[in-house]
Amino acid sequence: MLLDEQTNRSVIDGMRAIGIVLVICFHVTIGLATLLESDSIQGYVDTLPSVINIMWQALGSEVIFLFSGFLLSYLLMRELLRSGSIDVRDFYLRRLSRIIPLYLIALALYSLVRDFSPLEFLLNLLFVSQIFDATTIVPVGWSLEVLVQSYLLLPFVVLLFLRSNHPIRFCSAAIAGFLAIRYFAFAADPASYTTPIYALFAGTDTTEVQDKAYYLLIYRATPFLLGFLVAYLVVHKDEMLRAVFERPGMTPLLLLLSLLTVVGSGFLPVQDSQSRLYAWSGDQFWLWFWTLQRFIFSIGIALFALCTWYGKSPLIEPLLKVSQWRVWARISHNIYSIYLFHPVFLIPSAALAFRTIEKEQVMPIHLFEVFATIVLATLFATLFGGVVTRFVELPAQGWIRKRFGA
Fold first, then answer.
1. Separation of alpha carbons 172 and 183, rounded Å
2. String of DSSP letters for 28-92
């Protein structure tokens, strides 16, 4: 099986690590923009080269959701093949035993600086604060809610799809259905897609539709379903995939297609008010952009992963070597704690990079200072994550699984 090979597991570590680094890049980039007056933001935008346009777009969570859906679907399918059934209770125990201990610590930490009611605290504990439009205490708590809700549904989704006559068609139809939900939600509220994205970075309030499309599982389900689809192909159509990638020239072609898809969906200069993109595009373009961008980006990432797993080309070798760098495994293995606690390190990292704690002294912002902030925040979060993973997360997991396991 695919993940029995260390090289393939390294690819997943690399992709997950890149996902969390993209999350930090976005939070740093947007965080710096919030420090500036609206008339200074264009100068900041001009400072950052177009090659890093993706840092302005919150696509790191898409990578994390995609590979969460893939890994857990893969494991559930393997269990179903091995034993003929899925132990749902054990699945829930393993997922929640990892999530709850650090999440409780994060709730306690961020509660010190957030205002909320007892009811809102309860809704956060139940991972449903966004559903009820309540305060989300942990800054990245919305994504934990999306993940937990998807975990609760995933075993049944896997069983439902696999017991259908056509799992690929069934899953594809579900993806199309969730994309349709996004489309009609945006189409019903023109302000949600006609407001230029750069205006949001300058302080324009997001619409209710934009918020729901970002925070709620019903609008963010497609990467999980795509992860299931990739897992199904890997587990049940392995020979077919190998035959496809063994065809002459197929690997370079699919690799190029994956890169074009990622670049075309993730590197548009949406942050630049002076970009030709806004002069050339109309309202319908932006309606489809808000509907499809995340899904198209996820397709590119999924295809890239398949190329590295199955590809038969010298082009793949450098990618595999890069994926085996130890830094990716270090970040990937601590991804949950990094995700939860990296917001704590953003301001200290920026203070060190800019050598000031005065907001007025931040301008002009230089590219080096932005990257220094990202590197420092990633470093501090990874070091802290390693400590809490070793001394809190793993011991708590062991105790919970021993105490409540079968």
1. 16
2. HHHHHHHTS-GGGHHHHHHHS-GGGGGGGS--HHHHHHHHHHHHHHHHHHHHHHHHSS--HHHHH
What Cα–Cα distance (Å) separates residue 330 from each residue in 3, 13, 92, 229? 18, 9, 25, 27
Maximum separation of any 2 CA atoms in the chain, in Å: 63
Confidence at residue 34, expressed as pLDDT on a 0 to 100 scale? 85
Query: Pick from 356, 376, 394: which is nearest to 35 by CA?
Result: 356
Distance CA 319, CA 307 (A): 10
Distance CA 285, CA 281 (A): 6
Q: Which is nearest to 309 in space by CA: 6, 4, 1, 8?
A: 8
Mark the ranges of the chain whose per-residue pLDDT is less than 70: 1, 406
> Looking at residue 406, what is its pLDDT?
59
Domain ranges of the chain: 2-404
- Which tens digit of pLDDT belongs to each residue from 40-74? 888 889 888 988 999 999 999 999 999 999 999 99
Residue 111 and residue 138: Cα distance in Å, rounded?
A: 8
Q: Is residue 189 within 8 Å of 291, Cβ to Cβ?
A: no
How many CB atoms neighbour CB 98 within 10 A?
A: 18
Residue 89: count other Cβ atoms within 10 Å of its Cβ.
12
Helix (H) / strand (E) element for 342: namely helix 335-354
- Which ranges of 112-139 does DSSP label H, i.e. alpha helix? 118-125
Considering only CA atoms, give the Rg of the chain: 21
